[in-house]
Specification:
Radius of gyration: 17 Å
Shape: globular
Strand content: 15-25%
């Protein structure tokens, strides 16, 4: 098994003050503003937690990606921090959809039983981050952008609504 970090397309950090660092390095458009990107906003909305984006088209040409991101908080001189400290930026890792599915299956081995179980991941708004049948989309990954659970899995959505888990 390859180390998960070997499977990352991009690793980056964007700071509130406008500094952006990307690995591996590439030339960026002058107008690129990390603070305006969906992954940055998602991390801010999920302050202190690891957040995931829904699939989107990478701004640097890598195709459909899913971002795993987290806020960076201002620390103190004694090397401590508190969840209420000011946010100074966001760090992120981009994965291709196929690699992200590998990551999900590695975390939840039950997902490999495709005959009986279909695994998917949703965000707090009910939008699908990863769905088991998206791997079959091949080059048409755009079908996966912005799909709500109620569209893709209406039976599951109904159960979640009935159980007051989702509105």
């Amino acid at each position: 098994d390859r180390d998960l970090l070997d499977l990352v397309i991009w690793a980056y950090v964007g700071f509130k003050v406008g500094v952006f660092r990307l690995y591996p390095g590439t030339r960026l458009a002058q107008e690129y503003d990390a603070v305006q990107r969906p992954w940055y906003k998602r991390a801010i909305a999920q302050r202190g937690k690891i957040a995931f984006s829904i699939p989107y088209e990478d701004a640097f040409g890598a195709g459909a990606v899913i971002t795993r991101c987290k806020t960076l908080l201002a620390g103190r001189s004694n090397h401590t921090y508190d969840d209420l400290d000011p946010i100074v930026g966001v760090m992120g890792l981009d994965f291709s959809m196929d690699v992200f599915y590998y990551y999900m299956v590695d975390s939840f081995p039950e997902c490999t039983d495709h005959g009986n179980i279909g695994c998917f991941m949703i965000d707090d708004g009910g939008y699908i981050i990863m769905h088991y049948d998206w791997l079959d989309l091949q080059d048409d990954k755009e079908q996966a952008y912005g799909v709500h659970l109620s569209q893709k899995e209406p039976g599951v959505a109904k159960i979640l609504i009935d159980e007051n888990v989702m509105r």
